[in-house]
Amino acid sequence: QHPTEQWRPKVHFSPQKNWTNDPNGMIYFKGYYHLFFQHNPKGNEWGNMSWGHARSKDLLHWEELPVAIPNGKEYIFSGCVVWDKYHASGLGNPQKDLLIAIYTADYPYTREEQHLAFSNDDGLTWTKYEGNPVLNINYKDFRDPNIFWHEESKQFIMAVAKPFEYKISFYGSKNLIKWELLSEFGKQGDVGMIWECPSLQYLPIEGSTQKKWVLFVSSQGPYKDYVGMQYFIGDFDGKKFTNENDEDTKLYVDFGKDFYAAVPFSNAPKNQNVWLGWMLSWKYAKEQPTFPWKGQMSLARKLSLVESNQGLRLQQKFVPDFDRMAPSFEASNFVVKDSKFKQISGMKFLKDKTYAVDVKISGSKSHFSGLLIKGKANEQEWIKIGFDEKTMKWKIDRSHSGKIISDFFDGLQVAPAVDGMPKNFKVVIDRSTVELLAQNGTVAISALRFPLDIEENVYLISEGGNTQIQQIKIWELK
Ligand code: FRU
Q: What positions does the domain Glycosyl hydrolase family 32 C-terminal occupy (predicted)?
């Protein structure tokens, strides 16, 4: 076993070997969550882009399957899968269930077109459609189609990006083969970086029976400043998306460096909106120091909207819901004194680095209330996760977390608090992955780390003032 296997997350998907970036074609079908992914089947770096395939019944245990869609002259870039329930496309065997993949065919440095492939065996094997492309506007950069069935207008809707114009185009189709341009949306919000991997989703508003349309876009690049994923809240009438906030409003999905290209599972149970993202950053993806794989996915998260004092905000909750499992440790109503490490009794040294922690802060005068996770053998190796009451910011400090893999591997990741949300947080640590969802999931920071120490200790800390803790729970994930 290669020594870097110690960094392989246990309950997050990573390919057994070779490179991955974006999650693709995610769909729930006949009891399985299918995850296709940007994959190089031949190497541990970006190239030969194909769709890898894995499936899971619970979004924690993943089974990797053979490569689903291999590249030819064209690279198989990001895209989606939908269930063609009524065989509207007329493709394949009409007696069998039909899944349709629509993805970007990338002809390096030349052109990007939207292509179709279909499967009659629940996604195991795919046939590239002879009539490809299904959508071509002779553009060099035109990619990442994401499709859903829109009941009101009785058609499939595709969102697809024109990255360098900061635009998302919407197309409509009755049969998934012929696509007609409906409208374009763009040049709003954050336009500091290219736009890719869009998805348009209809999200429930917590505590009401209402729903709103939300457009998600990924923006990142290896050279300029990091943006990440942003979202726009508004309306969709079957043709056109309208942003209900003003053009300059910038709303971000995750303030960590390592969450990108998330798109939803199609056909998810109970009509829920569940997604996961690529847990890495283009800024240093090549430098991920692991072998024989590079790249991993985030945990799945359920999406909704919630009303805050600042207006509607995205809410993300981990799936599965840890609250429904018995914790390995629990304590309530105590004070963490200023500048004291509070050893969490009973949880001295964790046997393995895969666990979840839930903390409810009831009061704080501190500039850092939260967790300090330190190496057992090497106390100079640590990561801090928590809240700064003085500046009202959530933070992950990974500046001393182990191997610093690049100059762009920023030590501190910061997210502004959302006004009107309680100061609770959940963090899932799964070896090299750290995902923080705070304030009922309205604040997210996802970050990787590469600790050298094998075992670690978890403390509660409070710096520059005391912190009252209402409750802490820890789950050791087996
Ligand atoms: C986003 C992305 C997509 C593209 C894919 C190529 O991370 O650049 O726009 O389809 O990766 O691997």
A: 346-476
